[in-house]
Amino acid sequence: MPIKIPDLLPAKSKLQDENVFVMDESRAFRQDIRPLQILILNLMPLKQQTETHLLRLLGNSPLQIDVGLLHTSSHVPRHTSLEHLEQFYKSIDDVKDKRYDGLIITGAPIEKLHYEDVTYWDELSQIMEWSKTNVTSTLHICWGAMAGLFYHYGIDKYIRPKKISGIFPHDLKDETEKLLSGFDEEFLAPHSRNADIRKEEIENEPNLKILSESDEAGVYIAASTDGRQIFVTGHPEYDAFTLQKEYERDQQAGLNPDIPVNYFPKNDPNQRPRLRWRTHSNMLISNWLNYYVYQETPYKL
């Protein structure tokens, strides 16, 4: 089934080239069906790249999805044009009276900042509070997961001695968990962050459970016991070259980054990285949409 996106969104042509089933607004208008209403709060600096990453995963679901894009009006991004934001994005003031089946809150490369020092923290807090009553289930990614754990449960992050970057193996903590349906007992997923969450703090919260973790990368997936809040500390949406671009960016910035772990063949940055986490990423998003959104949301929002 297709995802419905604006007619002129730049990601449309790239997704169509990859045979992702997208339907523009003009065609969707003629469809007599109730699609899922999914809102993406895009906090990443390269917003068009993140749009493509997430729409690619959402487009792999058998469900029809109507995607909306949200940004924080209290922060002006440097890497996305105002014209793009005005054409395709809304603010919380535009949607605060609406209800959505699902919300995705992306990461942001600001892990080293205290939450209160983030320029849009008050607005993000407003959005996360709004989501508790206006969204069936919210999926938080990377920094978005850490911010969500802090806002909803008071679980703070800590700065790692070195950035964690690479592709890491993960184990399942509960093989009966619906979000992990169809997963291998061990699977790969990308991480790219300077901060982390302490496992014991999640374990001490009775309304949270750990679903997957890695010996090297720590807790990967945690969820509220009612399934309304999902926290993913990695980047399942990344394509094959995202970590490479980040590594080269950090090199150019003089940060002397380590080579991403288990990423380049033979650990050689001159070789083309291979995409080895696509199946897990597609299943994660499809399971979230099916079990925590589609099967839980009311027909009439």
Distance between the termini: 21 Å
Tell me what the CATH architecture is.
3-Layer(aba) Sandwich
Under CATH, the homologous superfamily reads Class I glutamine amidotransferase (GATase) domain
CATH class: Alpha Beta
Helix content: 25-40%
The helix/strand order is EHEHEHEHEHEHEHEEHEEEHH
Helix and strand composition category: alpha/beta
Ranges where pLDDT stays below 50 over 5 or more residues in a row are none
Strand content: 25-35%
Q: How many domains would you count in the coordinates?
A: 1
Question: Would you give the CATH topology?
Answer: Rossmann fold
Please compute the radius of gyration using only Cα atoms. Answer: 18 Å
Q: What does the main sheet amount to?
A: 12 strands, mixed
Shape: globular
Number of DSSP strands? Answer: 12
Average pLDDT, rounded to a whole number, is 92
Instruction: Give the number of helices.
Output: 10
What does this molecule look like?
This protein is an alpha/beta fold and 301 residues long. 31% of the residues lie in helices and 26% in strands. The chain is built from ten helices and twelve strands. Strands 1, 2, 3, 4, 5, 6, 7, 8, 9, 10, 11 and 12 form a twelve-stranded mixed β-sheet that branches. It is globular. It catalyses: L-homoserine + acetyl-CoA = O-acetyl-L-homoserine + CoA.
Chain-wise SSE layout:
Elements: E1 3-5, H1 11-17, E2 22-24, H2 25-28, E3 36-41, H3 47-58, E4 65-70, H4 82-88, E5 89-90, H5 92-95, E6 100-105, H6 121-134, E7 135-141, H7 143-153, E8 157-172, E9 186-197, H8 199-203, E10 208-214, E11 218-224, E12 229-232, H9 242-252, H10 278-294
Parallel strand pairs: 1-2, 1-4, 3-4, 3-6, 4-5, 6-7, 7-12
Antiparallel strand pairs: 8-9, 8-10, 10-11, 11-12
